[in-house]
Fold this sequence. Notes:
The chain is α/β, with parallel strands linked by helices.
Amino acid sequence: MPPSTTSVDRGSLWQRWDPHIHAPGTVLEDEFEGPDAWEEYLVRIETATPTVVALGITDYWSIDLYERVLAEKTEGRLPDVKLIFPNVEMRLGVATGSGSAVNAHLLISPDDPDHIDEARRFLSSLIFRAKGEAYSCTREDLIKLGRAHDKDAVEEQVALKVGTNQFKTTATELKRAFDDSEWAQKNIVVAVAATTGSGTSGMQGDTSMAATRQEIERLAGIIFSGTPSDRAFWLGEGADSLEELREKYNGAKPCLHGSDAHKLERVCAPDMDRFTWIKGGPSFEALHQALIEPAARVHIGAVPPDGALPYKVISAIELAGASWCTPVRIDLNPGLVGIIGARGSGKTALVDLVTTGAGSPEARENTESFIRRAADHLSELEIKVIWADGEETSVGVDGPEDGDTRVQYLSQQFVERLCSAEGALSDDLLSEIERVVFERHLSEERLGATDFEELLRTRAARSRAARDDSREALQRAVRESFEERRKDAELDGLRRRRAVDAKTIADDKKARGELTSKGADDRVRRLNEIQGELEKRQLDLDAAARRGQAVSRLADQVKNVRERTIPTELEELKRAHADAGVTSSDWDAFRRSFDGEPDQVLGNLREKAERQIADLRGEPVSTASAEDPFVADDADLTKVPRTPLAQEVERLQKQIGIDAKKAEQLKRLNRKISEAETALGRLDEQIKVAEGAAGRIDELRERRKTEYGKVFDALVEEENELEKLYAPLAASLAGGGGALEKLSFEVRREVDVEGWADAGEELLDLRKSGPFKGHGTLLDAAREELVPAWRAGSSDDVSEAMASFRDRHDNDLLAHSQVAKDDLKAYWEWAARVANWLDGTAHVRLRYGIQYDGVDIEQLSPGTRGIVLLLLYLSIDQSDDRPLIIDQPEENLDPKSVFDELVERFREARGRRQVIIVTHNANLVVNTDADQVIVASAGPHRSGDLPEIAYQGGGLEDLGIRREVCEILEGGQEAFIERAKRLRVPLRRDLQAG
């Protein structure tokens, strides 16, 4: 089959046929009237809309009218009609319920140059017996039969009509004639009518005729009916399944419908515009292919089935500056195109050229591509892509400047990269799956997101924020809990310290008394009284000063919140919720503010502290002489400020006669006592706080439990959002059948319990005796007590499990301290780290994705990943309607997987997008019933130049193409044979051999 020098044949296209049309002069029921009936008949065919390319010229027991129409064609009429074949209508010797004989038809191939003589010879083998005579189906015997039946039928045409009406055959006789004629088996297809008037449906009322009816329908390869219910039945979509059709009737059968014109008004004008469309070239072989693929290759309706939108179909490419390529125009079918050829024949070169011309960067970026390897010879090349809507684009091998990728190209290298067995699943395949999930959502469901990750962030934002808030609250509760436990543990020590400090103060006071014991008793007593009040006043002054500092720090914090925290929070709210629709003026309503007037409260507190300090300090007192007291003897010492008290202490010390050295000692002792008294006061405050720690510990334990559960509440909420996000995809997978049903979406909690246990063991001294001595004991406990709840439990289950674990093992964990317990600061810092680890939740995270046959995609073999990848593009990704171009998809797959999992998906995909595949696998050409097969061939290598590459094309109805498929593709011959066996279609020897 030499390649065309102008273009490549586009293969199987939808073409309108009228397989059942009578002509003027038809033997029975001729209603074509007028002297110009033939001219008008021809004109009506020539002007029919849509154009008719194939005619089955019909007459009863005769092909005479076929010859007349063929002669008109030879004279230049019917230029658009490419195929004319005889349709011999016959009557079987059984009647319908209305009394009419059942009609059958012989559709005869015109491919044999001797088909007219052979057809007449076959018809003559059919015998009708009447009145002791045997009449064969010839014009002469039909006339004899007419005259024998009706003595008045003297005129030849009248006798022919009577004889034709009387002549009958049977299914048994017809089968016998076929068995005796190899030519008939190859060139004739039997059709039966399914109407109730003259078809087999009219036999349904008589149960005694059920077997006869079934035999007639078993003999037929075609059913003449335009009724949708009949078509559904004969495709296995009705009362009988496809398997039942194979068992009862030798398989599914195509329904054809013609105009059955017996008058001019009916020519190419069937009722309800039920036109017959056959996908294939205008050849009788296309009809043979329709017998094998009745659902895919035959359609009845006003228009043929829709495929991809025209602007999404590459109609052809034209190459300029490509003297090495013949032809330079390659026309492409809008459906499924298979590109075949020997290794190095130019298959991948063609798809590289097509995809580069359509804007894909894959070939330009792939170092293994034809575009890159042959770059030195392609500098003058220009690729014109012609789209089915008429648009044309031209680019060089560098591709378009705007990078508008109008095709989806899966090169060998791209598929290998996505299906590689090395390491984890590549980001490319995950990204592709997520893209498909995203595009499954209607635009109004996408919340303004532009990709999967953005939609996921938007949908899960609330649950993730809640989880983060709960984690922060949990960490605060943990910190506070261990702070309280530290205080509770330190209580006894604080009490012991207080006792020691109180005794020290008492001793110091005793020593001070001894320093002043040499003075007058009254003055010594007075000095001790004044000194005691002075110490009290100093304690009060210290406390007041601390309150003043605390007020100042609080004021600074309020200022910081106002000037920094609140504005920052508001800006974060604006950014995080920009889509909420809040106007600029309305955002002020969300500004956080203090409830009340903190400045006024702080001002009052500051004034109170300053006034108290001033009152406690007091002003210096002046006396008339050095002997006069600074504090009156009858004064209420509890109300005397510090300054006069200090003056009086100094005066009394001088009067008593304490020398300078003792005075200095007394001064230091007084300071020591004063500081110790202050420290004792602080210690009393700590003891008071520590004494209340036990109650707060219980409260914080409940807070930890609650917040731990809230983390998992948020996790469950995010699980639900993910389920909703994947719901459209999950629904389509569930109803997909076959390999698609092996795909499933799963969202689950993934628990890194080993990592959690390892982190815990890092904090413990595993050498110490106890429940967690040695590596692995902590992991065992976690697996038994925590993992079930972590993986599948509700928030209550999880919080209860962790609370029980803490209650059971808190002391055990502390027993494995890495820090000495007497180093309190270090010990409690270590204990806090243990608590933070114990209540951590980072090791529990959501895992979501696709599984195939129950196995995560990451764990699949490269071959099975290849199946998933192709399922993704062929069946799951319903939104992408760009041409899908795949280079040798079977390279990563075993042949059985191709047949079992992918053949039907390729067949389905071509109904919504153009699919072009380079393949060595016969299943992907034969069992997919490829619409166009392009055969690539290359000449010998030419020094300094590319080899000559040639392309030829056609549909599987083309005998030359079938021969190439059988010769080039491994298992090509077997694929044709096995398909026929599977479909229970008798396969002629010429089809077997191609």
